[in-house]
Write a structure and sequence with these properties.
The complex is a heterodimer of chains A (249) and B (312). By secondary structure, chain A is mainly alpha-helical. Chain A has one domain (2-245). Chain A contains eleven helices and no strands. Chain A has helices at residues 2-10, 16-38, 46-59, 61-75, 82-87, 93-126, 136-161, 166-184, 190-193, 195-203, 218-245. In chain A, helix 6 (93-126) runs antiparallel to helix 11. The radius of gyration of chain A is 19 Å and the shape is globular. Chain B has 312 residues and is of the alpha/beta class. Chain B has two domains: 7-233, Rossmann fold; 236-296, Alpha-Beta Plaits. Helices cover 33% and strands 25% of the residues of chain B. Chain B is built from eleven helices and 15 strands. Chain B has helices at residues 55-62, 85-88, 107-118, 122-131, 147-159, 177-192, 204-207, 228-234, 246-252, 272-284, 299-307, and strands at 15-26, 29-35, 38-40, 44-48, 70-75, 78-79, 92-95, 165-169, 196-201, 213-218, 221-226, 239-242, 259-261, 264-267, 291-294. The longest helix of chain B is centred in the middle third of the chain and has 16 residues, at 177-192. The chains are: A mainly alpha (249), B alpha/beta (312).
Chain lengths: 249, 312
């Protein structure tokens, strides 16, 4: 717990907050502009707005955003003598790795909260949609946050190993492109075990596009959450073992 | 290899850190070779050597940041390795290479971060900050700190856990003379509190007066380990012969490596018996000998001799 609290303190004056606010708002803005410019009506109200905002967001911007956040979190450890200090303390490698992933999960959840708030405000203020955003999208949002975890753990591991800020982000973009292809061809097993594909799959939940059947069931949500939990645990355990074995140069 | 000290360590309880045949190689490049370090408890151990002599790698192996290729490190009687390091590191503070700190945070926030991470009390943090006299600068972002202040913050971060051992890698690097003097005072103060300090430098003068024990490293090998008095005693200063006939003297003593040196003759590496033999020979050959003396050597000269001058 101390390691997580220490990690949260490192977020002070961090660029991470800009990413958390800007990326989902850009997705909302893109959805709004797309609707206004094309003049296409929101035939199914909130559903259409959600679809136009989240589908593209889930193809690769979300994974890239998670990757940027991971690079930002690890960048400070690659500076000065921070690696030596980090590993010269009596904190276990598992605690170091887990704390980073927990903070990434918090940031991913906040990013999703901004997205939900943005869609709600746009739907009401710009398009005058009746009522509030249906609760099913809150459930979908929770599933998206859960599905962010394996990608976050993987990006965290890459940013831990690579001094480069951009290289892990490139991996995320390539990975999410491959993931999108897996979702498109409807490969159920691979799109469940590949973190980027799982993330894309979660963002399409209930949209009825890219092989999604348009429904949001408890079973479907539970499958994504279970797969995400197992993948995250595996990646965290693997990267902690790697960190423990690795020399600090 | 955890738990109690081994039977063969019981006779070395006064040594808080020992290494046995410690080596590190990268490919075919040997960085540290067969190092037997003996750090007495409560001392300031000055770890000296030219840049690239293997000091930082050795210090990293002491902390298990780098795994030895062969040999072992024992700290407080226990073998230091990946499986034991977290436990042992509770009692070891360190500052390796560049000073650590998150520059976008203030000094105070950096201290609070370590406090949260290690579950330290406010008192522990305050004592560490006061020890390095940084209490008036905690509200400033570290990015605005001078190098000296960053070094002091790095030491405060290492001290906050109240360690028994402090390992500092070139803490005076880049400091001005006043900063170096301040660091010397700090190290002496810490040793006075019973903390064993291992401090490295490539400049003898920086830690000569502070260190009670010296370890001199050259090309990854331990060239000398002991007190400064032992270091001076170990060296064999050149013999200088004062004579009105230096050319003949140099020729007669040529077998001992004698050379002309100004108005006299210099003969290197002679022990007492050989010196007596040399004098007897000169007298026997009828050479006038006005005086024979050993050249005075400073600690710096000895260091230079040992390291081949690479440290200066």
């Amino acid at each position: 717990m101390g390691a997580v609290r220490a990690e949260l303190l490192k977020l002070k004056r961090s660029l991470s907050w800009t990413v958390v606010a800007a990326l989902p708002l850009m997705a909302v803005l893109a959805g709004v502009v797309n609707t206004l410019v094309c003049g296409a009506a929101l035939d199914e109200g909130w559903h259409t707005l959600w679809l136009r905002t989240v589908v593209v967001y889930g193809l690769f911007p979300l994974a890239a955003g998670v990757a940027v956040l991971a690079s930002l979190l690890w960048r400070v450890e690659h500076q000065g003598g921070n690696w030596n200090a980090l590993m010269g303390r009596p904190t276990s490698a598992l605690a170091v790795v887990s704390a980073k992933v927990v903070v990434l999960a918090v940031l991913a959840a906040l990013m999703q909260a901004v997205l939900v708030a943005g869609v709600s405000v746009a739907g009401t203020a710009v398009f005058g949609l009746p009522g509030a955003l249906p609760p099913r999208y809150l459930l979908v949002s929770a599933v998206i946050v859960a599905a962010c975890l394996p990608a976050a753990a993987l990006q965290s591991a890459l940013s831990m190993l690579m001094r480069s800020f951009a290289a892990p982000v490139v991996v995320a973009v390539v990975g999410s492109t491959a993931g999108t292809l897996l979702v498109l061809i409807g490969h159920g097993t691979l799109s469940t075990v590949m973190p980027y594909a799982l993330l894309t799959r979660a963002t399409q939940l209930g949209t009825g596009v890219f092989g999604d059947d348009g429904t949001v069931t408890g079973e479907g949500a539970a499958l994504v959450v279970a797969a995400a939990s197992a993948l995250t645990a595996a990646v965290v355990a693997g990267s902690a073992a790697l960190l423990n074995r690795r020399d600090v140069h | 290899m955890t738990g109690r000290p081994r039977a063969d360590d019981r006779g070395a309880v006064s040594h808080i850190i020992t290494t046995h045949c410690l080596s590190k190689t990268y490919g075919d490049r040997t960085v540290v070779s067969d190092l037997d370090l003996r750090v007495p408890e409560g001392c300031v151990y000055g770890f000296l050597g030219p840049n690239g002599s293997g000091k930082s790698t050795t210090m990293k192996m002491l902390l298990s940041l780098v795994r030895p290729s062969t040999g072992e490190v024992r700290v407080m009687g226990r073998r230091m390795q990946r499986s034991t390091r977290r436990d042992l590191l509770r009692d070891i503070g360190s500052l390796i290479e560049a000073p650590p700190a998150y520059t976008h945070l203030t000094g105070g926030e950096n201290m609070r971060l370590v406090q949260r991470l290690l579950g330290l009390s406010d008192g522990q943090v305050l004592r560490a900050v006061r020890t390095v006299r940084l209490q008036d600068h905690l509200d400033r972002r570290v990015a605005t700190y001078s190098l000296g202040m960053r070094q002091r913050l790095g030491i405060a971060l290492a001290l906050a856990r109240e360690p028994r051992i402090l390992i500092l890698d070139e803490p005076t690097n880049g400091l001005d003379p006043a900063g170096i003097e301040e660091m010397r005072g700090l190290l002496t103060h810490l040793a006075g509190r019973g903390i064993t300090v291992v401090v490295s430098s490539h400049l003898l003068g920086e830690i000569d007066r502070t260190a009670t024990v010296l370890g001199i490293l050259g090309q990854g090998r331990m060239l000398f380990q002991g007190t400064r008095e032992e270091l001076l005693a170990r060296s064999v200063p050149d013999v200088l012969v004062d004579t009105p006939d230096p050319d003949r003297t140099a020729a007669l003593a040529g077998g001992w490596g004698a050379v002309r040196d100004g108005p006299g003759v210099r003969v290197p590496g002679l022990d007492h018996d050989t010196t007596a033999e040399l004098v007897a020979r000169l007298v026997h050959e009828g050479v006038a000998v006005y005086g024979v003396r050993r050249e005075e050597q400073s600690l710096e000269d000895v260091f230079m001799d040992l390291t081949g001058g690479g440290g200066l």
